[in-house]
C-alpha cells in the first residue's frame, strides 16, 4: 500500500500538467492603464458584448466569445487595481503577474512545470 500512494500522486500530477501557454496568460485590453507587478485576483467580472463580433473565441477555441473580463487584483505592494482582459480563464484567488508588455500571467502552478522540465 505504501508504494501505491506515491504512484497515484505522480499519476495525478502528470495528468494535470500542460504546456499550452494560452492557459496561463491573457492580454490586457487597455495596456496603458495599469501598473506592473504581482498580486492576487480578488474578483472576476464579465463585461458582456464588449468585443466586436468575430474577434474572440471561448476557452475551447470553437465558439465566439464577445465578452471581456475584468480582474480586480490586490497587489503585493499593498495597492489595488483592475484590468480588462481577453480571457475568461482566470479565477478568484489565483496569483498573477502584470507584465510590461500588457499581459496577465498566472503564477500559481507554473513552478512544478519548470521543475520537471516542461515549462518555458
What does this structure look like?
This protein has about 120 residues and is an alpha+beta fold. The protein has one domain. About 15% of the residues lie in helices and about 30% in strands. It is built from two helices and six strands; from the N terminus they run H-E-E-E-E-E-E-H. Strands 1-6-5-2-3-4 form a six-stranded antiparallel sheet, with no helix packed on it. The mean pLDDT is about 75.
Keywords, please?
six-stranded antiparallel beta sheet; single chain; alpha+beta; 120 residues; globular
Concise account of the structure shown:
The chain has one domain.
Poorly predicted runs are none
Radius of gyration: 17 Å
> Which structural class do the helices and strands define?
alpha+beta
Query: What's the average pLDDT?
Result: 77
List the helices and strands and how they pair.
Elements: H1 4-15, E1 25-27, E2 37-47, E3 68-75, E4 80-85, E5 95-98, E6 103-106, H2 110-115
Amino acid at each position: 500500500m505504501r508504494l501505491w500512494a506515491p504512484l497515484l500522486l505522480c499519476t495525478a500530477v502528470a495528468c494535470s500538467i500542460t504546456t499550452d501557454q494560452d492557459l496561463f496568460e491573457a492580454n490586457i485590453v487597455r495596456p496603458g492603464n495599469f501598473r506592473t507587478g504581482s498580486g492576487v485576483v480578488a474578483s472576476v467580472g464579465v463585461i458582456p458584448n464588449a468585443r466586436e463580433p468575430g474577434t474572440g473565441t471561448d476557452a475551447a477555441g470553437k465558439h465566439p466569445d464577445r465578452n471581456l473580463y475584468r480582474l480586480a487584483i490586490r497587489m503585493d505592494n499593498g495597492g489595488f487595481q483592475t484590468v480588462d482582459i481577453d480571457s475568461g480563464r482566470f479565477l478568484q484567488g489565483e496569483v498573477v503577474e502584470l507584465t510590461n508588455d500588457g499581459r496577465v500571467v498566472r503564477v500559481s502552478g507554473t513552478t512544478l512545470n519548470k521543475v520537471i522540465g516542461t515549462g518555458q
